[in-house]
Write a structure and sequence with these properties.
Layout: E1 8-12, E2 15-19, E3 29-30, E4 56-65, E5 71-75, E6 81-86, E7 111-112, E8 133-136, E9 151-152, E10 160-161, E11 166-169, E12 175-178, E13 185-186, E14 201-202, E15 206-215, E16 223-224, E17 228-233, H1 247-257, H2 269-282, H3 288-294, H4 305-311, H5 319-326, H6 376-386, H7 410-420, E18 443-444, E19 455-456, E20 472-473, H8 475-479, H9 501-505, E21 531-532, H10 535-541, H11 548-556, E22 559-560, H12 570-580, E23 586-590, E24 611-615, H13 626-635, H14 642-648, H15 651-658
Parallel strand pairs: 2-17, 3-4
Antiparallel strand pairs: 1-4, 4-5, 4-12, 6-8, 6-15, 7-20, 9-10, 11-12, 13-14, 15-16, 15-17, 18-19, 21-22, 23-24
Helix pairs in contact: 2-6, 5-6, 10-11
Length: about 675
C-alpha cells in the first residue's frame, strides 16, 4: 500500500489527443479516458444543432506518487495550487515534404523543404507559434487562454491569423485542451492539387508540451510535475471503431522489444487476441470489402458466438480452427529499429490480413511494405494462441468512468486510451500521429522517467525546435543523434503529416485497383471511412414491415462516404473536403429501434448484434432525393420517423411549400456530374 506521502507528481495522459471542430468552443465534448470506451458527448451528438462538428477536448490530470513509485491519489485544485502551461504550435509549412516514412532503411527517401522558395530567416514565419499559455484555478476559461496570437507569413505576403485553440480547466482544476476550428486555406487562393504537400497552404492542427507545477498544502515549494504532450488532430469520423493495429500497439511493441516493459507471461485470449479480431470485424462498418470478409454470416465473422467459443478454446479439438485463422495473417516485417542498414523483407502476402495498405504503398510494388501487418508482439500472441498456449480469460465491458477503475490502474488507463484511439498505420503519412512514434530515440526509457511509460523526450522550456537540417533531409540525418527526433517541442509531432489534413483524408481511401473484386486494401477506414451504412439504409434494414430479404438488401447497401464531396474528380474532391468537411457524416454506434426487426433479442442470420451507422450527415445533401422516394413507394412503406418523412417528401411538395419552381428545389449542395466525369 502507498504510504500516503506524495514525493512527486506526473501528468496523465502522457500523450493526450484533442481533435479539431468548427463548432463554438462551448460545444466541446471530452475525449475518451477508458480503454475500449468511446467518447460519449453530453448532450449526445458529435455535431451541434447548427450541424457544426464539436471539438474533442483532451483532459489532463495530475497523480501523486510515493517514494516507491506507487500511486497515492489524484491531485486536484481542491487540495493544491496547480498551474498548468501548454505551448502549441504548427510547423507543417516550415518543415520538409512528405516522401515516405524515413525509418524504412533502404526504402526510405530523402526529401526537401516545403515552400522552398521562402528562404533564410523568412522561413521562421512559416511556423504558427502563439507561445505558451498558463492557466490555473477551477472552471477557468476566457479570452486570455486562447492560442490566438499565432500568424503565418509566406515570403513577402502579409501575416495570416491562425488560431490554434484554447485552454480551460474543469471544476476540479484539471486541464482541458481544445484545438482549432479545422480551417485550412491557401495563402494565395490556389487550389490544392495533392495529398500531402500543397505549397502555400496552412492548417490549424498542432501539438506541444504540457507542464504543471503543484504546491501541496504545507509545502514551501511547488513540485514540477512530470510533463506530458498534447496533439491536436483531425476529427474522428469513425467513433468507437479502432484500427486493427492501433498507435498503442505500435508503441507498446517498441517498449517490449526495447526491454522497457514486459509483456504478460501468459496470453489471455480476451485480453490480447480477441481485440485484434473484434477490431478487424468492426471495420465492416467503414469498408465494404471488410463487410464481405468479416460481416455477419460470413465464414470470417470471428465474433459470431459459436465461432468465438471455438476460438477461445485452448484444447486440441479446436486447434484446427485456431490455425486456420492464424494462417490468414501475414508475417510481420522485421522492426525498422532492428540493427543493420538494410531490411530483409518477407515475401509479399497481399491476400493475407490485415486488409490495409502498408507504409511503402505508392512508392514500391510487390514488396511486403505495401501491406500492413500486425506488430511483432501481436503476431507473437497469435502464434502462441494458435498453438494452444493461452487461457481464455473473460470478456469484460470497459467501465463507464475512469473513477470506476482501481486507483492504481487509472494513470495507465489514461496513458493508453488516446493511443488506442489513434491508428497505428499505415504511416503514409497518417491521420493523427505517424512513424516517428516507433523510433526508440523519441522516447525516455522508464528508468529515466521514474518508471513511467510513454514519455517523450521533451525540449527544455523556452528552447525553439529546429526546422532546418539543410536543403535535403536524408534518412541518415533524420535518424541520427543530431537529427529532429532527439526531442519533441511545440509543433514537432504533427509537422510530419500532410498539409492540409483534409486533402490527405480525401485522398487515401481504399481499393486503388479498380479491377479488384473488393474495395481493398484500405488506408484508414476506422478514422476516414470508405463505404458506410447510411441512416436511411439502417432504418429500412430494421423495419419489421419489410421482408427479411429486402431488409438484408438494405443492410448490404453501403455508400461511398465522400459521395457528397466527390465532384468531377480527384482535385474537386480534395478541395470540396477542405471547404465542406464538417458537412459529411460521422459513423457512430446506434441501437436498433425498439420496434425494429429483431427487437425480441434474437439476431437473424446475416444481421449484426451491434450497428455502426453514418450519422449527422448534412440533410441538404439528401433533400429532394427522388430515388429515396422511389424506394419507399416500391416497398410500400411510409417513413417511420420525422426525419425520414421530411426526407421523403416529393420535389413537388417541397416546391409548393417554398413557393418556387420544382427545378429550384434541388439544394445547391447536391452535385450533378456527368457519368463520364467520374
Amino acid at each position: 500500500m502507498p504510504d500516503g506521502t506524495v514525493v512527486r507528481c506526473a501528468i496523465h495522459p502522457a500523450i493526450g489527443v484533442a481533435r479539431v471542430g468548427n463548432a463554438p468552443a462551448d460545444d466541446f465534448y471530452l475525449a475518451p479516458e477508458v480503454p475500449g470506451r468511446p467518447a460519449e458527448p453530453v448532450p449526445p451528438g458529435f455535431k451541434n444543432a447548427a450541424g457544426q462538428v464539436r471539438k474533442e477536448a483532451a483532459r489532463f490530470r495530475i497523480y501523486g506518487y510515493d517514494s516507491e513509485g506507487r500511486v497515492v491519489r489524484e491531485i486536484t485544485a481542491e487540495e493544491a495550487e496547480i498551474t498548468w502551461e501548454v505551448h502549441l504550435a504548427n510547423r507543417k509549412a516550415a518543415w520538409y515534404q512528405f516522401a515516405n516514412a524515413m525509418d524504412l532503411k533502404q526504402y526510405a527517401l530523402s526529401t526537401t523543404f516545403r515552400n522552398a522558395t521562402v528562404t533564410g530567416a523568412l522561413r521562421q514565419a512559416l511556423v504558427t507559434d502563439p507561445g505558451p499559455i498558463e492557466i490555473s484555478g477551477r472552471g477557468t476559461s476566457g479570452a486570455q487562454y486562447r492560442f490566438d496570437q499565432g500568424y503565418i507569413r509566406f515570403g513577402d505576403g502579409g501575416p495570416i491569423h491562425v488560431p490554434l485553440g484554447e485552454l480551460r480547466t474543469d471544476d476540479a482544476g484539471r486541464l482541458l485542451v481544445l484545438g482549432g476550428d479545422g480551417k485550412s486555406a491557401s495563402a494565395t487562393d490556389q487550389p490544392a492539387i495533392t495529398f500531402a504537400n500543397n505549397e502555400g497552404w496552412y492548417d490549424d492542427v498542432s501539438d506541444g508540451p504540457v507542464r504543471a507545477t503543484v504546491k501541496l498544502p504545507g509545502s514551501s515549494e511547488a513540485m514540477e510535475a512530470e510533463p506530458a504532450t498534447v496533439a491536436v488532430t483531425p476529427p474522428n469520423f469513425g467513433q468507437g471503431l479502432y484500427g486493427v493495429v492501433t498507435l498503442h500497439d505500435v508503441i507498446y511493441d517498441l517498449f517490449v522489444r526495447q526491454g522497457w516493459t514486459q509483456a504478460p507471461e501468459e496470453v489471455v485470449f480476451y485480453d490480447q487476441v480477441f481485440p485484434i479480431f473484434e477490431r478487424m470485424v468492426n471495420n465492416q462498418w467503414v469498408n465494404q470489402g471488410d463487410y464481405m470478409l468479416f460481416g455477419p454470416g460470413s465464414p470470417g465473422d470471428l465474433t459470431e458466438p459459436g465461432r468465438l467459443a471455438r476460438l477461445a478454446d485452448p484444447g486440441e479439438g479446436a486447434r484446427r480452427d485456431r490455425e486456420t485463422v492464424f494462417e490468414l495473417f501475414r508475417v510481420p516485417i522485421e522492426p525498422w529499429d532492428a540493427p543493420g542498414r538494410r531490411a530483409k523483407l518477407p515475401p509479399p502476402q497481399p491476400a493475407h490480413q490485415a486488409p490495409f495498405y502498408g507504409d511503402g504503398f505508392g512508392e514500391y510494388e510487390d514488396l511486403a511494405i505495401d501491406e500492413l501487418a500486425l506488430t511483432v508482439t501481436q503476431y507473437g500472441w497469435l502464434q502462441r494462441w494458435a498453438a494452444g498456449d493461452f487461457v481464455p480469460g473473460t470478456r469484460r465491458e470497459p467501465p463507464a468512468r475512469l473513477e470506476d477503475l482501481p486507483l492504481a490502474e487509472q494513470p495507465f488507463a489514461l496513458d493508453r486510451t488516446p493511443l488506442d484511439d489513434c491508428l497505428g498505420g499505415p504511416f503514409h503519412p497518417g491521420i493523427e500521429l505517424t512513424w516517428p512514434m516507433r523510433v526508440p530515440r523519441m522516447w525516455r526509457p522508464p528508468a529515466e522517467a521514474h518508471g513511467l511509460l510513454y514519455r517523450l523526450h521533451i525540449l527544455p522550456r523556452g528552447e525553439t525546435p529546429r526546422d532546418d537540417f539543410g536543403p535535403v533531409l536524408t534518412p541518415e540525418v533524420c535518424l541520427g543523434p543530431d537529427g529532429p527526433l532527439v526531442a519533441s517541442g511545440p509543433g514537432t509531432l504533427t509537422r510530419w503529416l500532410g498539409i492540409p489534413w483534409q486533402t490527405d483524408e480525401a485522398s487515401c481511401l481504399a481499393g486503388y485497383d479498380a479491377s479488384s473484386y473488393l474495395p481493398l486494401p484500405s488506408f484508414w477506414a476506422a478514422r476516414v471511412p470508405n463505404q458506410v451504412l447510411s441512416h436511411n439504409a439502417f432504418q429500412q434494414a430494421t423495419d419489421p414491415r419489410l421482408s427479411y430479404v429486402q431488409r438484408l438488401k438494405n443492410l448490404a447497401y453501403r455508400q461511398f462516404w465522400l459521395r457528397d464531396l466527390q465532384g468531377s474528380g480527384y482535385q474537386a474532391r480534395i478541395n470540396n473536403m477542405v471547404a465542406e468537411w464538417s458537412l459529411i457524416g460521422i459513423v457512430a454506434e446506434r441501437p436498433a429501434p425498439e420496434d425494429g426487426a429483431g427487437a425480441s433479442g434474437e439476431t437473424e442470420p446475416g444481421f449484426p448484434e451491434r450497428w455502426w451507422v453514418e450519422t449527422e450527415r448534412d440533410p441538404a445533401f439528401s433533400a429532394a432525393d427522388a430515388t429515396w422516394r422511389q424506394l419507399l413507394l416500391v416497398e410500400g412503406s411510409e417513413p417511420r420517423t420525422d426525419r425520414m418523412r421530411k426526407a421523403a417528401r416529393s420535389i413537388l411538395e417541397l416546391a409548393a411549400e417554398r413557393g418556387v419552381e420544382p427545378d429550384a428545389v434541388v439544394h445547391p449542395r447536391r452535385r450533378h456530374i456527368r457519368q463520364d466525369e467520374r
